[in-house]
Amino acid sequence: MRVKSFTLIASILLGAANTLGATSTMAQTPVFVPPSRADLLKPAPNPAWNAFTVRGFDTTEIAPGLYTFRYTGTRNIFMVTPDGVIATDPISPEAAKVMRAEIRKVTDKPVKYVVYSHNHWDHIPGGQIFKGEGAAFISHEKCVAHFKDKPNPDIVMPDITFAKDYDLKLGGRTLKLFSLGPNHGDCLIFMQPDAENGRYLFGVDIATPGGAPLTFMVGYDPFNWLRTLKELETMNFGVLIPGHGPPVADKSSLTERRRYLEALMAAVKAAMDAGMPARELEEKVRVPEFAYLRGYDINVRDNVRRIQAYYAIGE
After folding, report:
1. Which of 40, 41, 199, 306: CA 20 to 30 A from 242?
2. What is the C-alpha to C-alpha distance for residues 95 and 55, in angstroms, rounded to an integer?
3. CA atoms of 207 and 287, how far apart (whole Å)
4. Could you tell me if 202 and 292 are in contact, meaning their C-beta atoms sit under 8 angstroms apart?
5. Kind plus residue range of the DSSP H or E element containing 249
6. Does the pLDDT at position 14 exceed 50?
7. What is the C-alpha separation between 170 and 174, in angstroms, rounded?
8. Residue-number span of the structural domain to which 72 is assigned
9. Residue 53 is part of a domain; what is its CATH number?
10. Residue-wise pLDDT tens digits, 75-96
């Protein structure tokens, strides 16, 4: 796994600033050094999953012809083939420009396809730069209704849609696309490149390795989220490429998220069944065995409120 980052440039700039009289604090800013691949692929709980940056951008080679591109806190994947490139989630117009430049460092082949993981605006705007080169856009069929209902001028409408499974083939390579039904919205798909016999799964937002779910768990159906995690755990792959966080993580990161949700739901349900007043739930219900998760302290109250709402209204 090879990382093309801009830490060297940052170091040069910091050194120059120090020479010109910048403050000692700036000169001493540490350069981020990512964990090794071996450390990232250790099972949960894994503190290496907390060692990532949301500054700048980088491109990491996961396997021959398979890369993950990160722009600030969001990442995607792209596959290079003899006949062109399969790209995914453009992230934003700004990110897409940088991504296009990163792809050019690897190959002079054009981007032939862009695949959307789902409909959320923190992942998919910005594809016009690829559409202008002739790329075809692909999404789950249910995403189209969201795009029409909430138009965003930075989101390119898909040319190809599918309902359950779709094998995207280009230049002798295959990217398997599949849906597991509702979970994080109703049009999230998973992507399994053919690299290393399908060892990798690009799974956006289904789990962020080492972290607690953010705030009110917006867009998630707890029941179907759990169902999806269980289905993924039975599938034949070993490494998760997440949409946020480290470039790769052991598959056990999905199990960690599933166990957290199960424990949280059980604790909230028990408190509600015991008659705890609703206003006290967010202050008193906790799952201390998962207090090690990144962001637990600042998110657990809202996580509790989301599960409380689920048990109150069934959604």
Report:
1. 306
2. 13
3. 18
4. no
5. strand 249-250
6. no
7. 7
8. 2-27+36-313
9. 3.60.15.10
10. 999 999 999 999 999 999 999 9
Q: Cβ distance 229 to 206 under 8 Å?
A: yes
Mean predicted confidence (pLDDT) in 168-188: 98
Tally the residues of the chain. 315
Q: How far is CA 2 from the centre of its chain?
A: 19
pLDDT of residue 26: 44
Under 8 Å between Cβ of 53 and 32:
yes
- What is the number of other CB atoms lying within 10 angstroms of the CB of residue 216? 15
Structure-token match 């966080």, residue found: 245
Pair of tokens at residue 31: 């350069």
Q: Is the peptide bond before 45 cis (omega within 30 degrees of 0)?
A: yes
How many domains, in total, are found in the chain? Answer: 1
Q: What is the mean pLDDT of residues 180-195?
A: 98
Characterize the bridge pairing of strands 189-193 and 173-179.
antiparallel
Give kind and range of the element (H or E) at residue 60: strand 57-63
Range 154-164 average pLDDT: 98
Strand partners, 202: 191, 241
**pLDDT given at position 12:** 31
